[in-house]
Amino acid sequence: MKNCKYYQVCGSAENCVNCKGYQADSKKVVYCVGAKWFDKVNGNTYNNVKVIDGENIEYLGFSYGYGSDYFYRAKYYFEKVYGADNFKLIDLGAGYYKKADVKNGRF
């Protein structure tokens, strides 16, 4: 079990008291990129999120929300696809874009 996180310290993962059934991180790494736009007329913020799982890129559509709402939408999406503990979601950030760019997924 050389993939143990303590292997370099103890040298023997089978007998290590720190390991106790530790398995290497086998979660699928997925990414999300958010885009936001601000509606000056109504004072609302909307967002869209692009989710990338290494093979596919999907846009989850635009929705009302501000701050990190796009991240939580991506997290909820991947929980449905992979299961709650089977992925690691990495946020690549978000920026403000024009309304047309966000609606068409051009970000």
How are the SSEs placed, and which strands pair?
Blueprint: H1 7-10, E1 28-39, E2 44-52, E3 57-59, E4 63-64, H2 69-82, E5 87-96, H3 99-103
Parallel strand pairs: 1-5
Antiparallel strand pairs: 1-2, 2-3, 2-4
Please give a quick description of this structure:
By secondary structure, the chain is of the alpha+beta class.
Describe it.
By secondary structure, the chain is an alpha+beta fold. The protein has one domain (25-103). The protein is 21% helix and 34% strand. The protein is built from three helices and five strands. It has helices at residues 7-10, 69-82, 99-103; strands spanning 28-39, 44-52, 57-59, 63-64, 87-96. Strands 1, 2, 3, 4 and 5 form a five-stranded mixed beta sheet that branches. Strand 2 and strand 3 form a beta hairpin. The longest helix is centred in the C-terminal third of the chain and has 14 residues, at 69-82. It is elongated, with a radius of gyration of 19 Å. The termini are far apart. The mean pLDDT is 76.
Features:
single chain, 107 residues, alpha+beta, 5 strands, 5-stranded mixed β-sheet, 21% helix, 3 helices
Instruction: Name the beta content range.
Output: 25-35%
Main β sheet profile: 5 strands, mixed
Structural class: alpha+beta
Q: What is the number of domains?
A: 1
Distance between the termini: 42 Å
Mean pLDDT: 76
Number of helices: 3
Structural shape? elongated
Helix content: 10-25%
Unreliable spans = none
H/E series: HEEEEHEH
The Cα radius of gyration reads 19 Å
Number of strands: 5
